[in-house]
Amino acid sequence: MNFAYTLEQLEFQQRARDFISRKMAPEVEKYDRASIFPKAAFREFGEEGFLGVIVPKEYGGLGLGTMEYCLLSEELGRLSAGYTHNGIFQTQKMITMYGTDEQKERFLPGLASGKLHAATAISEPGMGSSFKKMKTCARKEGGVYILNGVKSHINDAAEADVMNVFAQTDQGLTVFLLEKGTPGFKLTRKLDPIGLRASPIYEFELEDCPIPGENILGEEGKGLVVFITTFNFSRLGNASAFLGMAKAALEEALDFARGRKIGETRVTDFQGIRWTVAELFTRLEAAELLRNKAATIEDEGGDSSKLSSMAKFFCGEVAVDTIMAALRITGSYGCYRDTPFERWLRDIKALEIAGGTPEIMKNIIANQILKEVTF
Ligand SMILES: Cc1cc2nc3c(=O)[nH]c(=O)nc-3n(C[C@H](O)[C@H](O)[C@H](O)COP(=O)(O)OP(=O)(O)OC[C@H]3O[C@@H](n4cnc5c(N)ncnc54)[C@H](O)[C@@H]3O)c2cc1C
Question: How far is ligand 1, taken at its centre, from the CA of residue 373, in Å?
Fold first, then answer.
């Protein structure tokens, strides 16, 4: 496997970095504090093509792969994991892989251009890590499914034009495309999370909410397959956001430390600091290679579940350690809210839980390993 980035990938990443630093970075503080979706910037991000990174060209996207999605998520993550808006890419991936031609034509061009916004609704007040306790259900009446239930912790539920909603039917777990304005959809609460705040989080109710049969995504009862395949992909976006935050924190810390002297000694000349830097960069390099191996398997059409889970778990651990150490390297500088360290700290803790906890990642990894091992 070759993990070197191509020139095109590096150019794409640089273009994203330029856009994000020009258009998003100046206002990140405002949107993070108020927990508001930066709608105008994302519309422009879509118009520039970035939101269509994985959308096929015939539907207005760039038709690129998982690796480019990872590089994009890494750049958004450098700013804040709240800017990665994984619900958009998850929904695009679900529709691209499992949608009908009509669904693709209806949703993909808008999702690629930023005209439409999307979210993922799985979790409920009583269930996050396992589908077994999901209470949201759908009963079929003619050609329509009537949904009832409560969903919680849902990023961008109020802002989304289309949401992939998981519910149980007689046939089993099923994914529905819920469109804005559908009767029976009621926001009940805006939550106040510690991190990912630029993707506001909500609880909502579905009360006799009618969804036409043509809005089922994939086959009725086959929701678990949709979930596993598309979350293998989106967990690499999570892993990349971790990498982006960790790299940005380390750069910020080293910029500061290089310029700071304690007596006659620069902070970066202390051996304790130099060894810390060496260890942090080594672990970051390993984490990036793991992410890239998983992304390569995804792009080659293989089963990435073990490596994607490893990437989310390990990049998360590395990011937590790196950001904590980076903050320490700056002394008092990083302890104030006018530096980004506080936002990165809040974001990494929230992102460890969102998209699947470290324990769930380790369960998936162990299941795959123990299944594979033959004595
Ligand atoms: C900031 C944020 C954003 C989110 N955004 C979304 C979203 O947009 N859409 C959405 O659907 N959901 C979203 N979620 C929900 C998220 O996916 C769940 O919170 C997560 O899956 C954990 O579920 P839970 O909170 O119910 O924890 P629980 O499932 O109650 O877990 C509690 C603890 O038990 C551990 N645990 C659970 N099961 C096992 C097991 N089998 N083995 C070992 N340990 C176990 C967990 O790791 C955790 O430590 C978001 C959450 C957060 C915090």
Answer: 28
How is residue 22 annotated by DSSP?
Answer: I
Question: Atom 9 (ligand 1): residue with closest C-alpha?
Answer: 154
Per DSSP, the three-state class of 215 is helix
123 Cβ below 6 A of ligand 1: yes
Q: How far apart are CA 197 and CA 81, in angstroms?
A: 9
Class of 224-372 in CATH: mainly alpha
Q: Indicate the pTM of the whole model.
A: 0.97
Ligand 1 contacts CB of residue 356 (under 6 A): yes
The 10s digit of each residue's pLDDT in 178-190 is: 999 999 999 999 9
Q: What is the CATH architecture assignment of 7-117?
A: Orthogonal Bundle (1.10)
User: What is the best residue among 129, 206, 349 to mutate for testing ligand 1's pocket, by most ligand atoms within 8 Å of CB?
Assistant: 129
CB atoms within 10 A of CB 225: 15
The model's pLDDT over 99-144, given as tens digits with 9 standing for 90+, comes to: 999 999 999 999 999 999 999 999 999 999 999 899 999 999 999 9
Q: Where are the domains of the chain?
A: 7-117, 119-222, 224-372
Mutate to test the pocket of ligand 1, among 86, 134, 153 (most ligand atoms within 8 A of CB): 153
